[in-house]
Amino acid sequence: MSDHGLTGGVSVDLPVLTVMVAFSTIALYNVLELNVIIFATFKRRKGLYFWSFIVATWGIVPHTVGFIFKFFDVTSVWWAPLMLVSPGWFAMVSGQSLVLYSRLHLVVRSGERIRWVLYLIIFNAIVVGIPDMILAFLTNRPGAPASIVNAFSIFDKTQVTIYFVQESIISALYIYETVRLLGPGQGIAQNPYRKLLRHLILINILVLVFDATLLGTEYSGNFEIQTTYKPAIYSVKLKIEFSVLNRLVSIVKNKEFASLSNPSHNTNSLPLHDFTNTAHYTTAHNGSMGDSIKDDEQPRVMTTELVSGPTDWNDQAMRGGRIGETRDAEREIRVSESQVQLAAEYQRH
């Protein structure tokens, strides 16, 4: 059909049909795998990160199945597929943004910036998401006027663009703040947490690439491809999120973290909450970190790293003229705080 499934079913050749079926199959398979991973990974099933993961994952199924019903005329009730597509789309898209938002506080120290990201997500969900669903119903009803169909076609491209910009802002903010944490870092390149931060940057760049390809399918005019490709991409992005989670958990458990947190290396050690200046913000967003970690398992760091380090190094550097080394040392301290914060946040999973 000339509208590529915008107003009803589709009649496509075999190559396009194969692509549509392949994308739908990938999306549904990834949902099954994600559910297994979610309930096997999360030991404490609560908090924004967990529930946004659940909502985003489960939203993929009705979105995918609804478009299968719509494109292949499985039912003669015109509104039935849309009753699946609309809530599925809303949960999948907004849920994905909340997944990105819920881990943003791990690297962003500005509470104001994080609040504005949340405001952006809520605003777009109401101002962009709801009108798009209404137009979809008006477009697919029998005898819909051409003006409504054209309006939906334009608005659908607009909403895809807006959500692309929204996720780009979140990912770009994450990359920017992570790069600030990393700094030049000549002397600590092998630190496992620095490797983790680099990994997070690459993950966010990959997410931006996926979103760009989705935007390209939307503007190519192939509505049937775009709507089957989207849940596949969103399911892949959720699986990518678990690569971040698994990396964090493995670092918490590996011997590098054990050597960092072992009080025997320094008798002047303190629990994480005694020095981390972002602990109160983490608590406000995801529950008490102290409650999630047993007392005897709370990460500990050497006070000489976080308290006396900058002063001692600064005195030595000024005497020796090595101001550059002082700056590197102070940067390492800031990175160490955020690294341990990252590890502690995900230890509860």
Automatic annotation (TrEMBL):
Give the range the annotation lists for the signal sequence: none
Full protein name: DUF7703 domain-containing protein
Source species taxonomy: Eukaryota, Fungi, Dikarya, Ascomycota, Pezizomycotina
**Which residue windows are transmembrane per the record?**
20-42, 49-72, 78-104, 116-138
Please verify whether the record's keywords include Membrane.
Answer: yes
Lineage, top-rank taxon, reads: Eukaryota
Provide this UniProt record's keywords sorted from A to Z.
Membrane, Transmembrane, Transmembrane helix
Where the record annotates domain DUF7703, the positions are: 7-253
